[in-house]
Amino acid sequence: MRALEDISFAAPGGEITCLLGASGCGKSTLLGLAAGLLRVQQGEIALAGEVLADAGYNPPPEARPVGLVFQDGALFPHMTLAANVAFGLPRARAGEAEGWLAKVGLAGMGARYPHELSGGQQQRAALARAMAPGPAVLLMDEPFASVDIVLRRSLRRECRILLREAGTTVVLVTHDPAEALDIADRIAVMEKGRIVQFGTPLELHEAPATASVGAIFSGAQVVPGQVADAGLDTPFGLWPFECLGGEMPEGAGQLDLLVQADRLVPVADLRGGRVRDVHPIGPRNRVLLDGAQGAAITVETVLPVDPGKTYSVIPDPGSVRGFVRNEALRGTQ
Prior knowledge:
This protein is of the alpha+beta class and 333 residues long. It is 22% helix and 30% strand. The chain has 2 domains: 16-211, 3-Layer(aba) Sandwich (Rossmann fold), CATH 3.40.50.300; 220-326, CATH 2.40.50.140. The two termini are 20 Å apart.
């Protein structure tokens, strides 16, 4: 089984490109190929028009003009921060280490050891070490995952400013859509070893290529549907064609329907889904319904809903977006 299938994209110079997807989609494999941690078996990786690696040419990481930042920072524990940053520099440039530490907010901390730092400080030091040699490309694999969520938000925004000011070309792997939106200029959404869409955050939000991409960036949910004579047959009742926000997708039959939880109205009906949970969230109830064939849907409503009872859900007119189902990518959402 191939880890990657028909991958092709270009990361623009001086921009931050994110590879976004769930665990097992191939994003870290792709980064490993670019870094030289994995061998290219087919195709090629080019940098500034020159082949960096292909099936017959796989230089090791130290022979590539790339910097690496990993999830845990991977600092040398027996070295001070200044020595860590200076490790990849020529001896004549070792004095630049303190300057790089200052750029990442660690001024005056060069004499400390990694164990004396917080997780966020360790990642800043790792970033300084990777950027100091001036790599043509900086490769980052889930660099903020080990930092607590509050610090993570501020750290990635500070990181974006630093990288953009430096004009660094970056390819960053993440499974977190919020992180991709916070830091990326362009995002490659990956599913099952493929890139299903590549574009700016605005393009992915406004014109998703698939229902799953739309769900990632809009907070909506995906419901399976079948075009029938009287409407769209779903596990939660028959939805009228008027619910679709645009024209019926070309070649429609089996559809993935994208809809927001607060655009659905529950209606008591034995043909719908069974209420598994009702959770008050302020003035609304968040209701989870289980439908046929393992389907589930979330509804946010001010209407009273009884746990254990059966309800259909009716979408507001124009609130649903339909996508022809891509069976090759099913099971990755």
